[in-house]
Amino acid sequence: MTERGRCYRYVGPAELKAAVRRGDGGRRISSSAEFHGWVVEQSAAELAEPFTFVVGTDGVLRLAPRRSEHVACAGGDMVLGAGEIGFLRETDRWTVSEVSNQSTGYCPDVSSWAEVARALDAVELGRPSGFTHEVVFRRCPDCQEHNIVREGDFVCVFCGSDLPATWNVDPLV
């Protein structure tokens, strides 16, 4: 944990992290002006679907095209949050139309919303009060596989063991 919140290490396939090169990373968006500079560079087709995002340990939002790996968006670093995010132009400003913690590389807990909200507020984007799609991640204590809990069924899809009620994906955090 940092004074900001829990940090998430990359827990996905090692080859994806190994492919990250110096200078990789999503576009750093720390202000309204930086967001407006970024958004005008996006095509209508790009804006029609969600983007990959992370919140770095510095609390700053980083954005990349949807099919980007979260670990590349983060430059291989730890994050405070990660997922997918979509934007919508309202009458007088940009807002977040959808946002999730869907990142199988970092598997952030739903509690990461506080850090995501802080980063969006810093950019002065309208936003929902929480994730519009929450993903619950758990690591099976028996087979060690990462699971997505669906419909509140805390049972490992790989071996059938019970999954813990609290986030446990990264044993080192």
Instruction: Estimate what percentage of residues fall within beta strands.
Output: 15-25%
What's the mean pLDDT score? 94
- Percent range for helical residues? 10-25%
- Which structural class do you get from the secondary structure elements? alpha+beta
How do the strands line up in the largest sheet? 1-3-2-4-5
> Rounded to an integer, what's the Rg over CA atoms?
16 Å
Q: Helix and strand string, N-terminal first?
A: HEHHEEHEEHEE
Q: What is the number of helical segments per DSSP (H or I, 4+ residues)?
A: 5
Number of strands: 7
What's the structural blueprint in terms of helices and strands?
Layout: H1 14-18, E1 27-29, H2 32-39, H3 44-47, E2 51-56, E3 61-64, H4 70-73, E4 79-89, E5 94-99, H5 113-122, E6 136-139, E7 146-149
Antiparallel strand pairs: 1-3, 2-3, 2-4, 4-5, 6-7
Write a brief caption for the model:
It is built from five helices and seven strands. A hairpin with a 4-residue loop joins strand 2 and strand 3.
Fold and architecture overview:
The strands form two sheets. Strands 1-3-2-4-5 form a five-stranded antiparallel beta sheet. A two-stranded antiparallel sheet has the order 6-7. The protein has two domains: 14-134, no CATH class; 136-173. It contains five helices and seven strands. A hairpin with a 4-residue loop joins strand 4 and strand 5. The chain is globular and about 50 Å long. By secondary structure, it is an alpha+beta fold. The protein has helices at 14-18, 32-39, 44-47, 70-73, 113-122, and strands spanning 27-29, 51-56, 61-64, 79-89, 94-99, 136-139, 146-149. The chain is 18% helix and 22% strand.
